[in-house]
Structure formats: structure tokens, C-alpha cells
Amino acid sequence: MITSVLVANRGEIARRVFATCRRRGLATVAVFADADAASPHVREADSAVRLPGDTPAETYLRGDLIIEAARRAGADAIHPGYGFLSENADFARAVRAAGLIWIGPSPEAIEVMGSKIESKRRMAVAGVPVLDRLDVATLGEKDLPVLVKASAGGGGRGMRIVRTLADLPEAIASAAREAASAFGDPTVFCERYLEAGHHVEVQVMADEHGRIWALGERECSLQRRHQKVIEEAPSPLVERLGGDLRKRLLAAGRAAAAAVGYRGAGTVEFLADEAGEFWFLEMNTRLQVEHPVTECVTGVDLVGLQLDVANGRPLTGPEPGMTGYAIEARLYAEDPAADWRPQTGTVVRFDVPAADRQFDIPASGGIRVDSGVTDGSVVGIHYDAMLAKVIAYAADRESAARQLADALRRARVHGVTTNRDLLVASLLHPTFLAGTANTTFYDDISGLLEGGGRGGLGAFAERAGAVSAGSAVGAGSAVGAGSAVGAGSAAGAVGAVGAVAGPSGAAVGALIAAVADAAAERGPLLPGLTAGFRNIPVGFRSRVYALGDSEITVKYRFDRDGLTVDGLPGVALVRASGDEVTLDLDGVWRTFAVGRFGDRVVIDGPAGSIELRKLPRFADPADRMPAGALVAPMPGTVVRIGVEVGDAVTAGQPLVWLEAMKMEHAVRAPAAGTVTELPVSVGRQVTQGTPLAVVSDD
């Protein structure tokens, strides 16, 4: 029987497994890379064993070190979590050979389902619908578009959509490189790509006595880069099309598990269409990231069932059904406006005030948070950029969506750029609320970036005209990034303090930051005096903030009448401190929390947040980059250089490829020109801001 569990993983999933182990009275063992020494999962475990090194290859992918750690710490079972070695059949065999209990399916089942090529063959024999594999050598225009797909692994890595035959060779090479890096297997294949489908999956649980449960279905159609962002149970597509589709899906899930003699928790993934047809994609032979939504609607602790099955206990009682609705949003350290670029840095503050539970099922509805970070956690380059999963459980779908949006909106996440405001906008989007969103939802996110939910300064902004960035600002105008706050402007944001930090939101954020900074800097006042009191007229003070490459200048002064902003009579200051500002906007009071760390200022409002950088009054010329310099957008490793010095390039042409957070990222030429410098080489580790190339404008 299991008495002590080592989790061969890190972050959120390790904390999740530990939570169930504590409820069961089991001892817990963590393993950690050097970069994770201060991670919450290490602090929470009963004991922890260091894996020397930082990269996954040195640490969490070293099965021999993990098994030795279990021996040293006295663990008698290993839970693999997800990712890393969770679907590695050789590791499962090694765990069993070492006399330890493997909390997962048999190595044989992992092996079959770990190959998307072999698993599809096996599913076809079992009568589960599949998409046919395409022969690359005979592909023609009639077959397009196609999806190049890694045979091993998952998580969206090693996948490329190909719409022209000319792009096929590079897509195959790029997908193979990414698959080799992430899974150690460069094998890829092609299949037909369905442009607008629904990603629907069935959670299965099977014991060694031959019983298989299908614990309902989930829909995970909102994806970027083939990675899930928002998941829910039950599926709105299945709810809309009726019970027959659910019956067929659950039956196919059970058949898939039975075809490989499955034991433990697994997920059978399908692509479905609006006609109610579906096709097998793959089976994940592990616990899924999105398992909490199934736990909420079934009331079942899936990790607990994994422990029971590993102990040889049978599944007893009727197969659990679904009650209510649960929606999960993955909070990532990434910038959706910059092609979903992962972000690194220190999470200065992480707080979701609405959370009722952590790593547990809300009894009758509420908000659950499963997170791998706390205040002070570092997001590095070696691991996935997910910070947390926020889950809402309610009696009906719309309530769950709105509760989740509100919980995210009120969260405080400082230190790294996140997709939080995009998640809020997605959950409140009419297409999502109608339950008709499919896998194309994030193909064009411009509307989500600009719109978002209503609230904060948004209502005020709706009555303001827009001015393009860098323009002079006239009466009644909203302020564009790069503009001074000008005459009569009702500097509002649409949907937040900027839905996802839009230009107008940046200007309002700068105003709030300036007022809060002024309050933080001033000393105690004499009784009866207001802040900034002068007995002679004074001019306006200026403060300059930056959002990316845009600069926003705010001109203000404190006088006998309170705060005066240059040409902005429509905004009044109610009160201000260093960490909170209340503004009167068109007769409505709005309160904003202000946090600061280093030269950065974060403003959290009723409908979102924005992070600005405080600029010095005088710039150091030594800090300037040469004209035409392309810099690394994140720390990473140079894996490919596609040009040489002297080559002519076109705007948007990829020049250098970086690998960071287990994915490839292309750095592209901003304009046509000639490559004049290439100061990096393949294999070099670079930090954020490192010059990668210089392109001169012809």
C-alpha cells in the first residue's frame, strides 16, 4: 500500500497532488531543479531532493535521478504529474523495476498511445473514428490545409498548420526540431486540418478489475498555438446537439481505453464538428491540466482515484455523472498582443481574492485556484509559462463564465505580463457566452485586445473620440499612446484601464500612476494644508511613463482646488495615496489600486490592469541600441539563424529562431533592408534585450 508519494514534477501539478496526499494522510516528497529551490511545491512537501542543474534535460527528465531521490527519501510510489516523464514508457518500467508503485497506466498502454501513428491504427481497429494519415510524398493542393504533428508528446508542441505546399518542408523541419527538444522524438506526420472544429475530450478512469468509467466530457476549443486556454465541462457543443452525441462520445472513450487494457486516469481527445461527427485525435495517458473542471461537475477527486487504482482497489458504485457547469482559465505569463510571447520575471504579487478553494472542489459553487506561484516566484525560461488555473463552478454556464471573469478581473498579478485581461474579454464575448466558440476563436484577437469587458474607465471612454498615437489631443478626445494629456480629453480606456493595455488605457494609467507617485513621494502635511499647496501660482509638473515603446506624458499640479491636469477638467481627484487612487470620472467614482516594484507601476482597476514603466527625466545615451537592431524578446537559446551578413531581407522575414519555454520563437525583420550585423551564433544563450541582428534600411 502507498504510504509516501514522490511527485516527479514541479509547480502547480506537484502542489495539486500533494493536496490530495495530505487529505489521505500520505507523506509527500518533492524533487527540484536549482532554479526551483524556492518554489512553493518544495516548501510544502514533507521532504525534498535536489536535482542538480536548471534545464529539464538535467533535472525533471532524468528518470534515474528521480528514482534515486525516491529511494533516498523513503517514497514507495511515484506520481508523474503531466509533462516531462508522465508519458514515458521507459520511465514507468524503471519505476516498477525499482520496486516502486507507478501511479499511472501500464508502460505498454503508454507506448501505444504515446505514438499518434500507432494509436490511430489501434483506434481504427477498435471502431473509433479517426482522421486518415496523409503521405507527405503524395500531398497535393487538394489536400490543403494539413497539420504537421509530432507523433510523441502533446501540449501543442511540434505542430504546424500548412496552407501552401511551398511551406511544407520548413514546417516539417521546424516541427521535428521542436518535438525532438520537447519529447526526445523528432517523428512527425501529416493529417487533414479541419479549420473550424470543436476540441472535445472524454475523461476516463479504469481499474485493474476491468471496469472503465467515462466521467463526462470537456470542451477545450479556445486554444492558441494548439495549446488550451479555456476549458469547460460539460461541452457546450454536446449540450446543444443533444444526448446522443454524449452517449457516442463516452462510448468511444471507453472503447479507446479498453483497446489498450488501460488502467488509471486518461483523456481521450476528439475533434468534433457542428453536425455531431467526431474523430479521434490522441489519448493522453496521464492526468490533464484541465482535470479540475471534471472534478467540480462530478464531485470526484481524480488524484484520489489514481491513488486508489494504483493500490489495486476497484472502482465501486455507479459511474459518476455531471451536475452544474465548471469553466477553467489558464493564467499565463505571456503577451497576447505580441504573438503570445512568453514572459519571464519575478511574480511580485499573486492574489485572487475571490478564491474559495485551492486544489479542492467547491462544495456548492465558487472559485477554485490551482497555482504554482506565490509572491516572489520566478518565471524562468526553462519551463511552461502557466502561472495558475482559475476555475469557476456554478449551477449554470453563464453564471460560471461571469463569476470566473469577475474573479480574474479582481486578481492582482504583478511583475510579469499576463493574458489575464484577454481571458476576461474572452469569457464575456457573445460568441463564448452563446457556447458556439470553436478552435478559430483566437485566430484574430484584435477585437478582444481593444474591447474587453465594460467597466472601470470604459463607460467614460465611450463618450470620448479617439486620437491616433502621437497626435495632438483636442477637446473631448481620448488620449493616444505617445501623446501628452491634452485639452478637455476624457482619457478613458475601453474595458479596463485599457482592456489589454490599449493606448487610451495607457494614458489614463499614466495619470493614476503620476498621482500615486506624487502621494508616495510627499512628506507629512501641516494641519489645514492640502497636498501641493503654494501661496504663489506654479506651473505644471510633468511625469513620463512608458508602455512598450510608447511614451505617455502627464502634466499636472496640486493647487487650492485640488488636482488640476493640463486641459482635463472632466477628471477630478477624490483621494490619493501611494497605493490607491479614486477618481471622479464624469460623476462616477472609480477606485484603482497601485503597486510598484523597481521602475514599474501596476494599476489595477474595476475592469483590468495595466503595467507602466517610469522613465527618468534624462536618458543615458549609452543605453541606446543601434538603428535597426533586433533584440531578443525573451531569454532563450539561439537554435537557428536563417540569414548571413550582407543578405537582403523583407519586412516580416524570420531571421533568428530562439527556443524558450520548450517552444520555438521566430524573430523577424521589422522592415526591408540588408543584414549588417549578426552578433550571435547557434547554441548561444541570450538574455532579454540581447542584440541578435542589425538590419539597415536600404
Textual characterization of the structure:
The chain has 698 residues and is an alpha+beta fold. Helix content is 24%, strand content 31%. It is built from 17 helices and 40 strands. It has a 9-stranded mixed sheet with strand order 14-13-10-11-12-15-23-21-20, with helices on both faces. Strands 27-26-25-32-31-30-29-28 form an 8-stranded antiparallel sheet, sandwiched between helices. A hairpin with a 2-residue loop joins strand 31 and strand 32. The longest helix has 19 residues. The termini are far apart.
Q: Structural class, from secondary structure content?
A: alpha+beta
Model regions low in confidence, pLDDT < 50 over at least 5 residues: 452-503
Number of alpha- plus pi-helical segments = 17
Q: For the record, give the distance between the C-alpha atoms at the N and C termini, rounded to a whole number.
A: 72 Å
Q: Indicate the proportion of strand residues.
A: 25-35%
